[in-house]
Amino acid sequence: GAPTISIFLKPPGVIPLGGSTTICCIFQRTYGSFVLYKGSHRLRTLKQSGSRAKFSISNATYEDRGTYYCHYLEGGTVLARSDELEVSVEELRLLRPDLSVLPGHEVRAGADVMFRCTTTHPSTGCYLYLEGQIRAQLLSREQGDYNFSHVQKGDSGRYSCQCYTMSGLREWSAVSNTLDLVVR
């Protein structure tokens, strides 16, 4: 298939009302420009710096919610497009969870790793995010623990988590502290 652009939020997660985030688009070419779309609306065009473009959202409102994607152009021709990125803006009401990792920040390839997202609120679900990946990973949850078996170099990166209430209206927490996992 055609090459795809990586698109992700930095920092990842549900954006707090009034907060800010950056939509990053990465494509391994260096001469063209990126166009950011929201739904079918062309929002902005950016000449890239290196192989990435950054589109900022600041003082986020509910109007910023929606589906975003990028196209990469050279000489007016679309060479690649990204997957769709869902952007959510919410009032964050729950306390920020705490993320820890066992056995530690540095592991050998093939090791098993457990991320623990600790929250004070009963009956929450949590997302574990890996910055730079295209989407949040919603993982099977048992007491807030996410187990990865046989981690590889590609699992290295900056992780964070964010929780939401499972009952009634969905309420979100702020994003946790970040942890860097290094797979050697």
TrEMBL record:
State the encoding gene.
Answer: Igsf1
The UniProt keyword set, sorted, is: Disulfide bond, Immunoglobulin domain, Signal
> Which InterPro entries would you find in this protein's record?
Ig-like_dom, Ig-like_dom_sf, Ig-like_fold, Ig-like_Receptors_ImmuneReg, Ig_sub
Which organism is the protein's source? Catharus fuscescens (Veery)
List the SUPFAM superfamilies: Immunoglobulin
Entries under PANTHER family matching the protein: MHC CLASS I NK CELL RECEPTOR, OSTEOCLAST-ASSOCIATED IMMUNOGLOBULIN-LIKE RECEPTOR
Q: Per the UniProt entry, what are the Gene Ontology biological process annotations, in alphabetical order?
A: immune response-regulating signaling pathway
- According to the entry, every stretch annotated as the Ig-like domain falls at 3-88, 97-176
Name by which UniProt lists this protein? IGSF1 protein
**Keyword Signal listed:** yes
Q: Does the keyword Signal apply?
A: yes
